[in-house]
Automatic annotation (TrEMBL), chains A, B:
GO biological process: D-galactonate catabolic process
Signal sequence interval, chain numbering: none
Domain of life: Bacteria
The protein's name in its UniProt record: 2-dehydro-3-deoxygalactonokinase
Keyword Zinc-finger assigned: no
Gene3D superfamilies hit by this protein: 2-keto-3-deoxy-galactonokinase, C-terminal domain (3.30.420.310), 2-keto-3-deoxy-galactonokinase, substrate binding domain (3.30.420.300)
GO MF annotations in UniProt: 2-dehydro-3-deoxygalactonokinase activity
Lineage: Bacteria, Pseudomonadati, Pseudomonadota, Alphaproteobacteria, Rhodobacterales
Entry-linked Pfam families: DGOK
Organism: Shimia isoporae
Annotated keywords: Kinase, Transferase
Length: 296, 296
């Protein structure tokens, strides 16, 4: 059945592109490709988008609202960062010039923080979506992923935030370091909890504990599933220890992939932190809907 | 001028092979290749060695004494670990079977530690060399590299040791992570010292500070030389914080590449630790000489 979009929501990250045919706040259809920002030259963004959305376009001009790395300097159009403290959506969406005449494309700006220096692109839209669905919510939002963000929110503004490279470190260490031989498929909950507890109580230990995963395999034939869970626990424990000023005694929401969000929520629970989990894609769409409502 | 070796010392690591034609404790000639353990199948070790040393062989049988990853399970012959506390050289060198008839090849065993699980191969020989040249020396020996070792030595024995993946983390983060765009050639001493001080005083901060290198580049166009020095400082500070129980109030010796050893020594000096630097190759040869003297 053919779908005609009233408008189109786009989540355009470093490695993926997802588009949603929308009617008001309702998703009519979705499509995705691996044409992430990192694989595209300037001239390739337009065709990559049109391939996905062409079938959803009606007779008039359709608005497209996008968030994520598509708005970086190396993206399609640079959407200059807003500066915290700030509402997650600044209202200054950047319009892409010279697009196919059937669409107007707007890119949501990211947020920057002067000190300590930090940036986000995409997460501000998820935060906006969460706040649109949770009125008057104050607390801390954790957005786990390749670069996990911890975001302090108060009175509908982002007050401050901090980025942790935990996801990327896990990928590098498990895939490209000497630990690759000792980290494999599967999961060992006890090994995860032991790793988590180790670095939560002594975060400096991580520098020494990482090689222990390899040594434990060599000396004790520790299974690769335990190695993987322990690596995950050590890295997450170090992150939670460093992020403690963010989450201690706060309302906490986690927005991310379901599996990863549950790992964070469970880890926080061991420290007396109770986190609600919100669906990542739902928050992105709610945020893009809010961004669309801010368009002139 | 042709050289005939009385015996041959070999330092055979993961990525390199170095051979030395010896007379007693004196180096007559040296040769090297990139035929490290990681690039060789079992049957290729013999030819890789003979290519380097063939010209040094006399009429009789020449002893070859090797240390390093060549003795790992995936190496030429497995030389089972000694267990600490132990003299750095256990005397149980493993003879390689089925070599060229003109040589007898012995591989020095590494050391293992049951708890916390840890292993070394190659560094035990450098420690033995250092102790051979520094009688009755008690203290801590730091061997910086891809996997830096901190080794507690007392009464000519290795009491305990700990491995830090600092060098490998630096390589992965500077070469393969999002930080690669913000870390380049050159050095900025102030950025190094600031990074070092940050994680020495708050080691848990490393999880958050790493992405700050990227953000600082994006927001402030921080030069890539400063990014590189800061990354180095942050990683080394975290290592020194974790290794503090090893070096605090101890005699310290650093055995490694000259440049890297000086970075460690300078960093320790900021914490009131005074380290002497010993030449890496000289210690390896002294250690292999001691290992030869233990042969039956």
């Amino acid at each position: 059945m053919a779908v005609t979009a009233e408008w189109i929501a786009v989540d355009w990250g470093t490695s993926n592109l997802r588009a949603f045919a929308m009617h008001g706040e309702t998703v009519l259809a979705e499509a995705q490709s691996d044409k992430g920002m990192s694989q595209l030259e300037k001239a390739e963004f337009g065709p990559a988008l049109m391939t996905l959305i062409d079938g959803w376009l009606g007779a008039g001009v359709t608005d497209v609202v996008a968030c994520g790395m598509v708005g970086a300097r190396q993206g399609w159009v640079e959407a200059p960062y807003g500066t915290v403290p700030s509402a997650p959506l600044t209202g200054n969406a950047a319009q892409v010039p010279g697009t196919d005449a059937r669409v107007r494309v707007f890119v949501v700006p990211g947020l920057k923080q002067a000190k300590p220096a930090d940036v986000m692109r995409g997460e501000e839209t998820q935060v906006a979506g969460f706040l649109a669905k949770n009125k008057n919510w104050d607390g801390v939002i954790c957005l786990p992923g390749t670069h996990t963000k911890w975001v302090h929110v108060s009175a509908d503004e982002v007050i401050s935030f901090r980025t942790f490279m935990t996801g990327e470190m896990f990928a590098l260490l498990s895939g490209s370091s000497v630990l690759q031989h000792s980290v494999g498929e599967g999961w060992d909950e006890a090994a995860f909890e032991d790793g988590l507890g180790t670095t939560l109580s002594r975060p400096e230990a991580i520098a020494a504990e990482l090689f222990g995963i390899r040594a434990s395999d060599l000396l004790n034939a520790t299974p690769a599933a335990a190695g993987r869970a322990r690596l995950s626990g050590l890295l997450l424990g170090a992150e939670l220890a460093a992020a403690r000023p963010y989450w201690l005694g706060q309302n906490i929401a986690v927005i991310g992939d379901v599996g990863l969000s549950e790992v964070y929520a469970k880890a926080l629970k061991t420290q007396g932190g109770f986190a609600t989990i919100a669906d990542c894609q739902e928050m992105t769409i709610a945020g893009l809907t809010a961004a669309r409502n801010l368009l002139g």
